[in-house]
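User: For a benchmark we're assembling, each entry needs the component sequences followed by a predicted structure for the full assembly. Here are entry 17's components. Please fill in the structure.
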Amino acid sequence: MSQVTLYTITGVILFFMGLRAFLLYAHLVRKILAFNVMGSGIFLLLVGIASRVPCAAPDPVPHALVLTGIVVSVSFTAFGLVLLRRIYAKTGKAHITTEMEDTDAQ
Amino acid sequence: MLPLATATLVFLSGRRAASFFLFPGAAAVIVSVCGLLCQVWTFGPQRHTVGGWSAPLGIELYADGLSASLLALTAVIMSAAGFYALVTTRRGGTHCEGCDNDLFWPLWFFLWATLNAVFLSRDIFNLYITLELLVLCAVPLLTLAGSGAALTAGMRYLLVAMLGSMAYLLGTVLLYAQYSTLSIPQLGALIESTPATLAAVVLITSGLLLKTALFPLHFWLPGAHGNAPTPVSALLSGLVVKASFYLLLRLWFGAFPRAISPAAGQYIGILGSAAIVWGSLLALRQVRLKLVIAYSTVAQVGYFFLLFPLATRLVRPSDSPDWMAMAGSGTLYFLISHGLAKASMFLSAGCIAHAAGSDRLSEFIGIGRYLPVSVFAFALAGVSLMGLPPSGGFVGKWLMLKAAFGTGQWWWAVVMSVGGLLAAAYVFMVLKQAVVFRLVDIRFYEVPAGMQWAALLLALSSLLLGLSGEAPFDLLEIGSPFSAPTSAGSPP
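Assistant: Structure for entry 17:
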């Protein structure tokens, strides 16, 4: 199995592992971590794609996409964690349930 | 150019003494949007490469009739809702709902810049970035309301958006791996129906459907739109859900047309119909006004998705382009007037909630006597949503109904009519509470006039859209993705 195939398949496996964790676990920290794993899977896939033409130099566009993607995922993680702390401070729980939405907004 | 200008304004407004930057900032963006409209009107689609780097490595900004009209919509709604927020903070007393937070105005302008960027982008990765930015701006604005419900709804929205973005990104990566290009017109020329492409299409579409809250993926929307600060709700329902819909539209008609079968359009239409019925029925069951309006958004989003079955080349390919163009114009018209009407509804709901101290339907019986302007605005917006003439909503629905009959798909017409009836039901449910003429001894707070007039202005715009005749259609036709194949797809 070539290196490119190894990277791409691992990337896809990571994505689906992250997806399963994202959907199954209720704790918010786990969801955010699962999101990061999904992101890493996609980045690995992108890096694998960059070398899909075996003899030529690697394609720079996927590398640029990975960098941008990393920035995006860091921002989302940071914001998600801050929001999680606020929710924990407000409600004492680290997962979201439907009872919290029945209060009046005003 | 436009998003960059707005972003610079944002950096200026990042200070405490920011209030005197707000009006010039908003005015500058409005002026440039008008300028762009005139340019698109006279010269056709405009293209601008940022920094001189052309595709595929650089970012290309592109404005055609659809983009320009959506930019104008954004400018109008953000100005009106912004005015509302300003008046709330200045004279609203303690009922500010978080609008007086230091971060509110920078976030507001960031959101404006991001919306502009969404409507001006033309390659899939840039669209991905702008989608992420939208979420990153919208969720903080939503959570500024501070209540437990708002924080929870914000978290749910964030998680849903993360999931949708990941699906979209994976689809984008798969497409790039196959075709080595990110630009939508180039993809449109190259794309074929291979398994990897179909997987990518499914992923991208699911991700975007999650973000536009199409049934059955709508579970996050009512909480988010119902619990946000009022001007933010107006933005969320009026603009942010439209952004992901706009993306889906661009991709389906610009990049994917040769890869997908007409049956796919029918599936989406079925989901859209389910959304219309389900959303309207749930709206009738709500106890809080803002949730009624939020469920109404769920229902109206279903209407937008009826575009897909109506506009994909289906039964008679020989005369499809005309019906396609008609379905396209109708849906877009409906989209624009819905944005205005929904924003107006949220703003008037905010006025009513401000006056009554809560937005439960049982709390504001008879409020029509105290807040005639707000209730009238709500009624006008309701008229547009129901699709009564002469509002913009009527024109949109009329065109969609014609397209439905023209392509022989009468079943969508039935759904649309049922939807109109249900919309009337929930609008009247609210109005009944407001217009009751009993003398009830409930204390109402003073509501500043500025807030009420902001709501009314938006509702009137929605009405005027129906009266303005041919002009908006000609604008939408410029570079439209629905025109016949010979004229669509300008060279990259």
